[in-house]
Structures are given as C-alpha cells and as structure tokens.
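Lecture 7 notes: from sequence to structure.

We start with a single chain of 257 residues. Read the sequence below before looking at the structure.
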Amino acid sequence: MTAKEIIEHMESLRNDEQRRILMQFFKTGSGEYGEGDEFLGLKVPQTREVVKSVEKETILNEIPQLLASKWHEVRLCGLLLMVSKFEKLATRRLINDSNAISQRDEILSMYLHHAEQANNWDLVDLSAPKILGHWLLLPTLLGSDNITEREYKQEVVDSLAESDNLWRQRMSVVCTLRTLQEGDPSWCLRYSEKLLHHPHDLMHKAVGWMLREMGKHVSVDLLRSFLSEHAATMPRTTLRYAIEKMPDAERHYWMDR
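Now the structure, written as tokens:
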C-alpha cells in the first residue's frame, strides 16, 4: 500500500460540513496556532479505521510522504501508523530483541526528524507518549559510548524542550505521560520546570495536564510538593489543570495562593 493510495482513499472520505467544524475547533484562522492547516473532515475513529486497514501493507518508508501532506488527517494517519508499528515492536517478548530495538530506534528517529509535521496539539498528544515516551522506557542502540543511555535520552528530549518550535516543545512535556504511567515522575518534573513559564496557553495546558497525571499515577503528595514551590508564580491555567481532580477545598486553597 503506497502513501499515494492511502491519501487518495482518505480524500474520497472528505466531509465538507465536518471540515468546517474542525477548522474552527483547531484554530486555523489568521494569527491562530493552527493557521493554514487543512482538513478533510474525518473524525479520529475514521482515521484509525484507515490505519487499521492499511498498516500491515504499508512499509515505514511510505510514512514520510503521509507526514508531508497538507491534510491534517493524513498526517495523523502517518503518525498513528508509526505508533502502531512501534507498539508491535515493544511487546514483552521483543523488548530486548536487537532487531526490534533497531527498528524502534528507526521509528523514533523518523518521528523526531519530522516532528514539526505534528503541527497541532492532537497530532502531538496522540503520538508523543506512545512513541517518544515509550522509547524512554526501552533499550536503545542510539547514543554513544561517552554518555549513558539515560543521558542520551535526556539530550534528545532537552533538544525538543529547548527548540523554538511550539510543537516540539509540547512533545517534550506530553511524552512524559507514558513514563508517569509506569511510575516514573522524573521526566515530568524536569520538563514541567523547564517549560513552566512558557508564554503559550497550549503549553500551560500541557504542563498542567502532566502535573495532574503525576498526582494520579505517582503521588499526589509529590504534586503538592511541586505546587508548594511553584503555585504562587505558575500560570493560572497550568495551576487549574494540575489541581483539577483535587477536592474543592484543596483546589480553592491552591488557587488562593
């Protein structure tokens, strides 16, 4: 299955009414964060169905053409194909298999190379935890003998956090969802602190979301400790997201601070 065939199939599913709704929802107007993004009008379950129907017949080398598409849903299809391929190479049986490790690294490298094609929050959120975040938990053949595997992985995510691209920066935070689900708060804490005072509202929401997940999956006391240090100066949106699941009385306490 070629990228051209996949794109033609997805174009045949175009829905102009849904397209207008999505273009408003994802802020594609002049000066908005999604300015210029083009939609076919497919809902996410439709795109997932396309992925399911073509993933076995689509080789990795076809995916960059999907990621280069002007269509939002086609780029999502490419990202979800990468997610599916990565997850199949990360089963318990294949975690330490050298061939699987090499193929996972190839997918990760492709993902990072084309990171700016994931140029809206949904594209980042549906891919970063399951590719980059999962990779942080797995063996890799990338890096060098001069640094540890952990140090190399940190360099990779630091480069995203320190870039001047909003979507790369969001990847560095949102990818930590996967590590939080495995009980490791260190990545979340590092990138939440690095990007806590980012100027964009989408980053305020992303950081707050990950802090809330840290409280859910790791420790609410660890979240409280972070808030004790930062609540007075962090963006209000970030704070509201971080404390969303707390009891009313405690939420009021932190907002008053």
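The two ends are 56 Å apart (CA to CA). Keep this in mind for problem set 3.
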